[in-house]
């Protein structure tokens, strides 16, 4: 008797809640402009929306099933937020480029707190423009050209360790590599004593990035926030030391400090500098490490491509050994096949499947209303998998990049004002790594029983060391 009564009362309460929810929150069903409808789609259950479906279904099918049912623009409700998903290049361009003033960047509050609220990702307008100009100037080809040999040094420190291990767990190795390159780009090659401490604190902070934002003693979030505070303090000391020594130093930090000295320039506070240093390390290392991991997997899965890449790289290696020199920026510009393999990796893996924006006012799109405050998600992955723009999209086929993709259809690094300033550095890292990997190691069969991401490399008689290379 009791259990059935409680189930009945639960159902009644739930029904009442749904009715009230629709009365109190009418924007889900009706528009403030009246004449416009919301995009098609389902908002799922009150509050939880379609969150459970997104987390229990394969995310690719979640998006593609809805796209088939509703079209290139549809609504849904995820993690307590009403959202509009868009999967056409034209609409993505509208949100990210032509009408970007109507859509502000938006991130979960916990991420903003951990990275730092003054980081470039979270802003629009003059502050964002100023920061972006400085970051871009640190990562443009003419600047990163001079880092090639330092990036190579990092590769040559990491790869010889692989010789002694029968099994390599790729993602953690790639994270080590991408992290070292990020540190080099941010602080320059002359690393101060404090940098070791910064590395350690950053790694503690990183552990909390995807945790619940529960700031109670002992929670991962709480530990991460403590690490963040200490990181800020360490960065402040590095800035102070550089100032006292009269040298701004290299890397992005040097660029920020130099800009502060230029008359008429907008000045960045220490906390703005710190947030952006942490932000760039965050943006630079996981993304690149993931891309490299997929790159190795696709090469492993496509032996004919791996052989072709090896041939391309071997040719460069022979030339540079003949000339008794190390790898140069110009070498990396003469790797057309490897470059296309990287482009195809970035399409197929779509490291950032989508990005988020929030409508700053009611916006009309394709005859539908996007109400103010709703999240708008351009789905990069869906566009990259459109057979209209990329025939046979599930096939790993670098030759498709012999022809330039149609505008706004290929966005591994985003588009518009918030597009990635580190794209050239990321590609350079991959090219230098692939050069040494493919010319030093040979492929073996993979052993799926061990469940390793990649087990395709083994030692060849040729050793890689700093000494074996001409400087
Ligand atoms: C394969 C590696 C990478 C991928 C796939 C990638 C992807 C992206 C994408 C898609 C965006 C745009 C996000 C949006 O519009 O909301 C972005 C932004 C950004 N990326 Fe990257 N990124 C990579 C590597 C890097 C590196 C090496 C750096 C180092 C400088 C970097 C720094 C940034 C920054 C600072 C932003 C924010 C820009 C802004 O808000 O104006 N990324 N990245």
From TrEMBL:
It is found in: Membrane. Pfam families: p450. The keyword Electron transport does not apply. It is a single-pass membrane protein. It is an enzyme of class 1 (oxidoreductase). GO terms for molecular function: (+)-abscisic acid 8'-hydroxylase activity; heme binding; iron ion binding. Its cofactor is heme. GO terms for biological process: abscisic acid catabolic process; response to abscisic acid; response to water deprivation; sterol metabolic process. Pathway: Plant hormone degradation; abscisic acid degradation. It comes from the Eukaryota. One of its GO terms (cellular component) is membrane. Keywords: Heme, Iron, Membrane, Metal-binding, Monooxygenase, Oxidoreductase, Transmembrane, Transmembrane helix. Its EC number is 1.14.14.137. Belongs to the cytochrome P450 family. This is (+)-abscisic acid 8'-hydroxylase. It comes from Ambrosia artemisiifolia (Common ragweed).
């Amino acid at each position: 008797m009791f259990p059935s009564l409680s189930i009945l009362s639960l159902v009644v309460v739930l029904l009442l809640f749904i009715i009230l929810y629709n009365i109190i929150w009418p924007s889900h069903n009706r528009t403030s402009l009246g004449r416009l409808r919301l995009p098609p789609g389902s908002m799922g259950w009150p509050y939880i929306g379609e969150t459970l479906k997104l987390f229990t279904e394969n995310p690719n099918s979640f998006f593609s099933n809805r796209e088939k049912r509703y079209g290139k623009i549809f609504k849904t409700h995820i993690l307590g937020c009403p959202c509009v998903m868009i999967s056409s290049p034209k609409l993505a361009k509208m949100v990210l480029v032509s009408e970007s003033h109507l859509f502000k960047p938006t991130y979960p509050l916990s991420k903003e707190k951990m990275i730092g609220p003054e980081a470039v990702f979270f802003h629009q307008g003059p502050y964002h423009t100023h920061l972006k100009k400085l970051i871009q100037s640190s990562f443009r080809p003419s600047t990163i050209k001079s880092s090639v040999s330092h990036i190579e040094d990092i590769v040559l420190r990491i790869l010889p360790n692989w010789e002694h291990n029968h099994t390599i767990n790729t993602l953690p190795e790639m994270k080590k590599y991408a992290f070292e390159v990020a540190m080099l780009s941010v602080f320059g090659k002359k690393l101060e004593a404090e940098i070791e401490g910064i590395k350690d604190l950053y790694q503690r902070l990183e552990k909390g990035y995807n945790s619940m934002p529960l700031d109670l003693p002992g929670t991962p979030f709480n530990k991460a926030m403590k690490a963040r505070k200490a990181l800020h303090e360490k960065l402040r000391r590095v800035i102070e030391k550089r100032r006292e020594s009269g040298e701004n130093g290299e890397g992005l930090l040097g660029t920020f400090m130099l800009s502060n000295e230029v008359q008429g320039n907008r000045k960045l506070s220490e906390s703005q500098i710190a947030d952006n240093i942490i932000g760039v390390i965050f943006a630079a290392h996981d993304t690149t490490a993931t891309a490299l991991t997929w790159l190795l997997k696709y090469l492993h899965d496509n032996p004919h491509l791996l052989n072709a890449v090896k041939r391309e790289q071997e040719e460069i290696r022979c030339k540079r050994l003949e000339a008794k020199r190390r790898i140069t920026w110009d070498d990396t510009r003469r790797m057309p096949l490897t470059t296309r393999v990287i482009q195809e990796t970035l399409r197929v893996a779509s490291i950032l499947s989508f990005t988020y924006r929030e409508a700053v006012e009611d916006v009309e799109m394709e005859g539908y209303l996007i109400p103010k405050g709703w999240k708008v998600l351009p789905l990069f992955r869906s566009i990259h998998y459109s057979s209209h723009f990329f025939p046979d999209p599930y096939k790993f086929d670098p030759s498709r990049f012999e022809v330039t993709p149609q505008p706004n259809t290929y966005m591994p690094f985003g588009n518009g004002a918030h597009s990635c300033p580190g794209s050239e550095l990321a590609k350079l890292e991959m090219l230098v790594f692939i050069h040494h990997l493919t010319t030093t190691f040979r492929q073996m069969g993979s052993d799926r029983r061990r469940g390793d991401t990649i087990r395709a490399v083994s030692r060849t008689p040729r050793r890689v060391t700093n000494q074996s290379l001409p400087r």
